[in-house]
Amino acid sequence: MSNSHEQSFWSKYIFSLDHKVIGKQFLWLGIFFLLFGGFQAMLIRWSLSNNMEPLPWWLLGDFLYQSSPVGAGIIGPDAYNQLFTMHGTIMIFWAITPILIGAFGNFCIPLQIGAPDMVFPKLNMISFWTMFLASVVLLFSYLLPEGTAAGGWTSYPPLSTPVGGIPGQGQTMWTLALTLAGTSTLMGAINYITTIVRLRAPGMDYFKMPLTTWGLFLTSILNALFVPIIAAGLIILLLDNIAGTQFLVAGSKATIPGGDPLLYQHVFWIFGHPEVYILILPAWGIVSDLLSVFARKPAFGYKVTAICMCTITALSGVVWGHHMYTTGMSPLLGKTFMFLTLLISIPSSIFFLNWLGTLWKGALKFDVPMLFAMSVMWVFGLGGLTGLYNATITSDIYLHDTYFVVGHFHYTMAASVLFGGFAAIYFWFPKMFGRDLDPTMGKIHFWGSFIPLNLVFFNMMVMGYAGHHRRIFDPSEFEFLKPVLGLNDFMTTSAFILGAVQVLFAFNFVWSLVKGKLAEKNPWGAATLEWTVDHPIPHGNFSATPQVVNGPHEYSHPSLKDKDWLAQSEPLPS
Amino acid sequence: MSSGTLVKKTAQLPEDNFTSYLGMIIGVGSFAMLFIALFASYGVLRIRAGVWMGYTIGTLPLILLWVNTVIICSSSYILFKSGKSIKAGNLNTARKYVFATLCFGAGFLLMQIILWNTLIAEGFIISAHQAGSVFYMLSGLHGLHVLGGLAALMWLLLKLTQNKFKEKHGVMVGMFWHFLTVVWIAFFILVVIV
């Protein structure tokens, strides 16, 4: 574009105010941490199957844990605690959040609603650099003498407090990093909500917005409401760690009476339960849109899907107690939380049926984004159904803190959100970078992810049902786990295949960026507004403000002759 | 855009007041959620604790807390007056009012520091008991936000001096500053008086 060469490298790529560049920055950050957190998952699996054995060369055994107290290259119990803590933290807050919300929120929202940019571009830039700072703080915590945080991704006290907890400064750094990441998310949320409310193009009613934007909109509302709650929890946790306050330390460990570790659990889950919807709502939106694009027909029950997502958003704020059934809460309260939680299955089932309705009698095209979008239906279906067992008090009391829970949240949070994110990356890559991701490598990536992923996560639930506690260091120590140890090794092998295939994805991403086929303007024949702009998308996006006349999914309209889609700003031919 | 003209840093965005207010309302709402969560946590601890203050409250110099309440309420009132002057088009008076608010705000923080020092000298420290933990946590966090509020007031004063002032600037800083007063009053009632 004519104005692009006047911006210096710094203002164009580093401290950019352009939502598309900021979106790409978030994408790079997210993919880096995705690989980083994924590698930690590999180390966890190695430790679970080959306990106290030195890491092989392909897990960087010659470099990692050289000064481990249990022997060079061996993951000891302390290191194992740090691994699963940081795997969870990084995957949730540094991989999924930047990719789904940071990258695609930034990239898609203004383009899909016909806006020139985010409404507060400077805030947007500060949001990314706050996230970057958070990442630096988080990575720095690995260099501390006693290592990084090790209290689990939930950081329940007393594990996370110095009194009776795990020693070292790692927890403090974790708390600081998470506070910074939350601040970044909050700034994003302010931007997203205001942009959607104020900058929709003429004619773009709320019920003409693509479902991706709907999902991101609802996510941002939840972020604005509930991220401050976790900030409150982090502040008291931080003060307990550094200032000697005793908000959360109780019992004989406390020097003064009155601290309450359960307080943290409440505060954490008042945020934490909405957080799982914060992560999944954009994925639901993306999948709803993509199924429509690749079935070449309008999304079935578009309005109902949007309303269902709103209902779930509202319900998500009042169900946090279902994480705490075993904390001795009153049975009446427990049953209330159980009832409210099970209510969520109604709107979830409705929009799931809408997805099936979209596919029904569609002209399905199995491009890579579609494969990932359809796989979300499978993994989310399984994750959602197993959620019922966790939501029901009677079964949860047995299943609580076992690998059944781990399998459940990996299906919902990891598999669904990540596959939603992959679908989004394969779908929008041509618009973001002007080149196509290689579809052959994409298909290998898909099947190489989908099959091993199910083998790992489904068997996690089997192991959990057999009684495998989620934070056991060495499963071979326990008599009752002996019958399922073979499954344990099988999961590890599957996980390594899953991990190796992600390297192929990273390679494809970088390779296609340089050598990929030049993309067409609208390779998928999609109707939403982002596909009406040129490559490379100019600063300011649209040459003229689009006038929106159609809904987001005008496919296969009977009066169309030479193509089967109608852009949202394109009137029907008479 | 021809290559000779200055590059616009941002694309053309509407600069209407409501857009800015909406962003500010969401932001202040988030801060409110933060303080609500902390006050609620305090409530839980307080209800469970039974005996709350393990010391004689009469020995503490709590008079400074009353003085501070008056100071911050006055600062809010003065800022409100400056808003009136802005509406009347009298920017010079408004500038004086904003400056006065800034002074009152700085005075508030100064008094807070004196108060903390006195209390610490009395042995009322953050790690002594939960009353101390809650007191310093909430007043400290509020103080940090006041520091941010002072920066916002300086920015407003700068805008007024450079004649780059727009009405929305005043309203937005006002929202944040009045919010801080409300938080302080909630703190004063819930933590100090109750």
Structure overview:
- The complex is a heterodimer of chains A (574) and B (194).
- Chain A is 61% helix and 0% strand.
- Chain A is built from 15 helices and no strands.
- Chain A has helices spanning 9-14, 19-49, 77-113, 121-140, 170-198, 211-242, 261-295, 302-315, 331-343, 345-359, 368-391, 393-399, 403-433, 439-465, 485-515.
- Chain B has a domain at 59-193: Cytochrome c oxidase, subunit III, four-helix bundle (Four Helix Bundle (Hemerythrin (Met), subunit A)), CATH 1.20.120.80.
- Chain B is 76% helix and 0% strand.
- Chain B has five helices and no strands.
- Chain B has helices at residues 17-49, 63-87, 91-121, 130-161, 167-193.
- Chain B starts with 16 loop residues before the first helix and ends with a helix.
- The chains are: A mainly alpha (574), B mainly alpha (194).
- Chains A and B meet through helix 5, helix 6 and helix 7 of A and helix 1 and helix 4 of B.
- Which whole number gives the mean pLDDT of chain A? 93
The whole-number mean of residue pLDDT values of chain B reads 87
| Overall geometry of chain A | globular
Question: Which chain pair shows the most residues in contact?
Answer: A-B, 52 and 42 residues
Q: What is the name of the CATH architecture of the domain at 59-193 in chain B?
A: Up-down Bundle
Give the oligomeric state. Answer: heterodimer
CATH class of the domain at 59-193 in chain B: Mainly Alpha
Taken in chain order, the helices and strands of chain A follow as HHHHHHHHHHHHHHH
Helix/sheet category of chain B: mainly alpha
Q: Between the first and last Cα atoms of chain B, what is the distance in angstroms?
A: 63 Å
Question: How many runs of DSSP E, i.e. beta strands of chain A?
Answer: 0
Classify the beta-strand content of chain B into a percent band.
under 5%
Report strand % of chain A: under 5%
As a whole number of angstroms, the C-alpha radius of gyration of chain A is 24 Å
Structural class of chain A: mainly alpha
